[in-house]
Amino acid sequence: MIDLRSDTVTRPTEAVRRAMAAAEVGDDVYREDPEVEALQEEVADRFGRDAALFVPSGVMGTLVLLRALVEPGAEVVCESDAHVVAYEAGAGALHAGVQFRTIDGERGRLDVDLVRPRLRPPTFPYTAVGAISVEETTNRGGGAIHGLERLRALRALADERGVPLHGDGARLFNAIVAAGTDPREYGEVFTAFSFCLSKGLGAPVGSLVVGDADVIDAARAWRRRFGGAMRQVGVLAAAGRHVLAHHVERLADDHANARTIAATLADAVPGSCDPDEVETNIVYVDTASRPAAEVLARLRDAGVLAGAMGEHLVRLVTHLDVSADDAERAAVLLATVLTDK
Ligand SMILES: Cc1ncc(COP(=O)(O)O)c(C=O)c1O
């Protein structure tokens, strides 16, 4: 099977498994796990920030930051399709006590001109603005990149209002590689942010939260309260260190494979796909009059898994376990399904 449902489906390589097996471990609640300490230091350095914290998942990374940065009852401004509102089962409202002020952006992106008029006045009894939150890259927005220019404008607005700019960087390294950005520039623009090791980077588990020392201390306490403080977790941190050392630059291959899929489809089935929209590793395909469910069932029969994002919208995500040949083959098979009488 060629599995293009998500970049979360990657399996650890032999080298990742070896790194995990060789990990030196200790009790991380005592801060005695050398792999975790090294991972956190390396990540903080890479982004030019004070500190980083290893957490079990992207959802927990966002949650501990919402708790550390935002007063319960305040509003988190984000895009209408953001992961934090769409896919986290109400966690932000339930566990961080925030409400979301959602704004329709373009391909999941916020822009300062969209956000400014939606910030409520800073006076009682208006709901307080607690944070502006953005995804880099956007998930439901199809892997679009905000980029530093937009983010700097949003950070200036956040500073003006005295609130943090929070980054959900589940796929931050896709943006870094695609745009050739220095990670330190992202480190500078976000007040605090998280990124995932277990998406395209290919680690089995884990995310990192990055920010100022006081924010990371608070996030550490919230991780504990949420039950996310782990013990001999160096076996997982070792996988994270390995993928950060070996799997970052290769994300460019995933982006090239996504472009190949888009170009093949746009050529074979005009109107099905816009290659100009493929900025990273996500491809959206319009199935026209064919129901996405039917297209997916036929694709599965042909050996390809993809996801439905709407009644007539299919999503393909490239990653570590998808070769250039797989990508080409999947695109040809999908084109056949879309054009079959
Ligand atoms: C933008 C974004 N944020 C957060 C997450 C959550 O990550 P996890 O499923 O590891 O908790 C995801 C997962 O796909 C994501 O795409």
UniProtKB/TrEMBL annotation:
Keywords: Lyase, Pyridoxal phosphate. Residues 3-287 form the Aromatic amino acid beta-eliminating lyase/threonine aldolase domain. One of its GO terms (biological process) is L-threonine catabolic process. GO terms for molecular function: L-allo-threonine aldolase activity. GO terms for cellular component: cytosol. Its cofactor is pyridoxal 5'-phosphate. It comes from the Bacteria. The modification N6-(pyridoxal phosphate)lysine is found at K199. Gene3D superfamilies: Aspartate Aminotransferase, domain 1, Type I PLP-dependent aspartate aminotransferase-like (Major domain). Belongs to the threonine aldolase family. This is Threonine aldolase. The lineage of its organism: Bacteria, Bacillati, Actinomycetota, Nitriliruptoria, Egicoccales.
